[in-house]
Amino acid sequence: MGSGAIIRAVLAGSLAHDRLRTALAVMAIALGVALGFAVQTINRAAVNELSLGVQALSGDADLEVRGPRDGFDEALYPVLAQRPEVAVASPVVEIDAKLADRPSSLRILGVDPFRAALIQPALIPATTNPLAMLQPEAIFLSTAAAQLLGRSPGDTIVFQAGLRTVSLRVAGTLNPGLSPTVAVIDIAGAQTQFDRTGRLSRIDLRLRSGVDVAAFATAMKPALPAGVAMARPEATVVAGTSLSRAYRVNLNVLALVALFTGGLLVFSTQALSVVRRRSQLALLRVLGLRRRRLVALIVLEGAVQGLVGSALGLLAGYGLAYFALRVFGADLGSGYFRGVAPTLTLDPVALCTFFALGVAMAVSGSVLPALEAARTAPAQALKAGDEQRAFTHLQPWTSGLGVLAVGGIAAFGPPVSGLPLFGYASIALLLVGTLMLLPRLAGFAWGRWPTPRLPAPRLALAQLRGAPGQALVSLASIVASVSLMVSMGIMVTSFRGSLETWLEQVLPADLYVRAAMNGDSAYLPPGVQDRIRALPGVRRADFMREQQLLLDPDRPRVVLIARDIDPADPGRTLPLVSPPVTVAVEGPPPVWINEPAAALYSQAVGQRIALPLGGRAVTFTVAGVWRDYARAQGAFVIGRDSYIAATQDPAATNAAIWLAPGADPAAMRDILRRDIPDGERLEVAAPGEIRALSLRAFDRTFAVTYALELAAVLIGLVGLSSAFGALVLARRREFGMLRHLGMTRGQIGGMLASEGFLVSGVGMATGLGLGWLMSLVLIHVVNRQSFHWGMEVAIPWGPLLGAVVLAMGLAMVTAVWSGRVAMGVDAVRAVRNDW
Predict the structure, then answer these.
(1) Can you tell me the mean pLDDT for 118-126?
(2) Going by C-beta distance under 8 Å and a sequence separation of 6 or more, which residues neighbour residue 704?
(3) What number is the average pLDDT over the span 177-191?
(4) Of 259, 326, 283, nearest in space to 45 by CA
(5) How far apart are CA 743 and CA 722, in angstroms?
């Protein structure tokens, strides 16, 4: 028989014995590949779209000067424009302008058309009237903005500046090739209409030929005001994507977990196939097939499953990515890429990577069964009943314990480039180490289980004690799926519970007022603040100003919160996670930083930090660290008096209102909107409404996480059911013999139910313990190193108990049902090979 004939015979034999399980294994690999490829495709498309948008808006600029979100003094513009190294300098005012008729904003760019034409031609509309852009009330929309707003030339768009309205006329559209959702107006109109007089958001520079860009940026650094940086335009992309990188990587890891559980299903399929074909494979060995060749043939079976599954997964992944973009958007519910409408493209690197991962996972799942088949002595395997000896070769305790120890040590590793790579490695090693110990753990548990009196449970326990290796096939699926479910369940429950507690701490007032949820053009002027304080029924009103400062050009802007706070008792206002320190009166004023800021900028209580306020560096003393789940880029809280003294900016963006005894919050909401000038534009909410909105946003953010986790758990449960069913079907001769000895179908069914209970019980106990350990790594390592948030561990006992009961019931039902199928063959026919 030639090599090709042997390969075809072995593959055909595998398919003939395990068509359903082979199909399930292929679909599991396909699902894992599809999830990973879809997430990667969406993330890549979003990042590419952001990069293209920055490139289009910056044009031919070599360098970009930018600073705080509310801009910097325009006096810097002539200083840079007159430098001999600069060929063109183009000033820009950027405004996220709140739309008056909807709860969203539009990005408006105020440009000098004469300068922009030389460096940012995409921002110059094609119009027959070259002076149209100089009209302060004229606005030009990109194609995406015109479609989003449903506006065409001649229409009017109303924006909100402060609490007043600004009406702009659509005078035309921009270059159709400009993909971002933006609008362009004359820079003088932007400064006048939106209260940005004397302020610029950025300056785009194109240097003269031959000038060293990096050297020029370094030389100009001392001349820039505090909080203003000069960098290449690509730095904006880096800063914009750095905040979402950890979220995107976590989604990719979850998708790979689903692929890993698919590999376990391949292992289950191949292991059971080897058990059922034990005598046939032994016969091939007797006929001259070498061990190495047999291993290669069985691994080839897994590779074929991986090839088919990976190909199907790539097709399904592209379709899934298309669907997810339409349902969740490019941000996948996270909010990081909100407003970005990317175009899906096929990345050859991602295609090859996930195709290779799918094949590699399937091959890995076939290695152990192949080694088991090659290790078996042919003469022994040809004897009836030898399948009970399968997988009895156990790893020593030290191997699994060593892997677990390395996994525990890895949990203490530092982040790598801001990513918790050691944390991911720790979780993987904990899982692999536990799987290596499973046969011994199971044998230890069953060896100490009290022997039942009833025949059926007694036989079940004796079967498991005699062949613990076979239980590895079912146990691997149980432990993998349960540990994943438990770890993610504990992590998400802990996060959600900590978020609820945090919201209760930071929302102590009766009502909260803000100028607008979206955009940075709306604010509360000083006169409005005085009117709110004077309203009847208002016992106390605290006002807050939020700004965004640039501390590092390679990172997103941090949030500065200026609010009234008692330095002697900051814990009344902020949920502190560290003991506060008292700042000396003669020293720098206090600043309280959130957990992400402490981690990202290496700050600790008692240290000093300089914050750029009003164009100069103002030194503060870190007086405490507080918990904050809303600002992962970092946030700093200072006293409002310190902020006004440094910036001369008395405006506010938010207000917290405490009502007098007996005052009705609903009535006060009406009074605010009626008695405050332009009060109908105020957004007023009770603490309960804000908590409900925040929790809905949390659930939306974790919707994709839930879906990826559910996929992995379902694959694991399918593997559990498939493995248990196949093991039972492989024992037909055993059931036939038991029937000959006088056992009834009911007793055999009871024996199988007992086996299902004992196997799933060990798997559940192991999975629960492992899941708890993995959740600690997720909470205290992966979460902290990814997002720098702390949280309190909370265990969802009810859902976990329900999941345990469901999985154990599934194992028992599968065992009994498979036993009925196996016993459907006549008992005499089932044992005829033993006569």
Answers:
(1) 85
(2) 39, 251, 324, 328, 332, 333
(3) 88
(4) 326
(5) 26
Tally Cβ neighbours within 10 Å of residue 647.
Answer: 20
Report the range of poorest mean pLDDT among 269-273, 433-437, 591-595, 612-616: 269-273
Q: What share of the chain is helix, strand, coil (3-state, %, to 5)?
A: 60, 15, 25
Residue 636, H or E segment: strand 635-639
What is the signed CA dihedral for 113, 116, 117, 118, rounded to 10 degrees?
A: 140
Segment 451-474, tens digit of pLDDT:
888 877 887 777 777 666 666 666
- State residue 720's pLDDT score: 62
Alpha-carbon span 488 to 495, nearest angstrom: 10
How far apart are alpha carbons 125 and 140 in whole angstroms?
7
Measured CA angle at 734 (ends 733, 738), to 5 deg: 115
Kindly report the three-state secondary structure assignment for every residue of 651-680. Answer: CECEEEEEECCCCCHHHHHHHHHHHCCCHH
Closest CA to 59 of 121, 126, 142: 121
Q: What is the DSSP letter of 178?
A: -
Inform me whether the pLDDT recorded for 278 exceeds 50.
yes
Please tell me which residue, 755 or 232, carries the higher pLDDT value: 232
- Is 100 strand, coil or helix? coil
pLDDT for res 85: 94
φ and ψ at 394, to 5 degrees?
-100, 145
Distances in Å between the Cα of 454 and the Cα atoms of 328, 370, 459, 697 are 55, 38, 9, 54
Query: Pairing relation of β-strands 86-99 and 202-207?
Result: antiparallel
On the 0-12 / 13-18 / 19+ scale of CB atoms within 10 A, 434 is: buried
- Cα separation, 475 vs 438, in Å, equals 7
User: And the tokens for 205?
Assistant: 């520079």
Alpha-carbon distance of 235 to 550, in angstroms, equals 12
Average pLDDT, the chain: 82
DSSP 105: E
Q: Determine the 3-state secondary structure of 590 from DSSP.
A: strand
Question: Rounded to whole angstroms, what are the CA distances from 395 to 377, 389, 401, 782?
Answer: 19, 15, 11, 30
Residue pointed to by tokens 């060749």: 293
What tokens were used for 583?
């700042």
Element (H, E) at 538: strand 538-549
DSSP string, 130-148: TTGGGSTTEEEE-HHHHHH
**How far apart, in Å, are the Cα atoms of 89 and each of 59, 71, 186, 703?**
12, 17, 16, 45
Nearest CA to 275 out of 7, 470, 468 is that of 470
Q: How many CB atoms lie within 10 A of CB 562?
A: 25
**Could you tell me if 446 and 737 are in contact, meaning their C-beta atoms sit under 8 angstroms apart?**
no
User: How far apart are alpha carbons 804 and 230 in whole angstroms?
Assistant: 57
Task: Pick the more confident residue, 235 or 194.
Answer: 194
Catalogue the E-assigned strands of 221-323. Answer: 229-231
Specify the pLDDT at position 835: 46
Q: Is the dihedral of CA 721, 722, 727, 732 positive or negative?
A: positive
Which carries the bigger pLDDT value, residue 332 or residue 398?
398
Summarised one tens digit per residue, pLDDT across range 361-408 is 888 878 877 777 667 666 565 555 545 555 555 556 788 889 999 999
Q: At residue 652, does pLDDT exceed 90?
A: yes
Q: Is the pLDDT of residue 587 over 70?
A: yes
* Encoded tokens for 364: 């890995």
Instruction: Tell me 128's DSSP state.
Output: S
Residue-wise pLDDT for 736-754, tens only, equals 677 767 777 777 777 777 7
Residue 221 DSSP code:
G
Q: Which one-letter amino acid corresponds to residue 374?
A: A
Map 330-344 to HEC letters. Answer: CCCCCCCCCCCCCCC
Phi, psi (5° rounding) for residue 504? -65, -35
Cα dihedral: 204, 210, 215, 216 (round 10):
-40
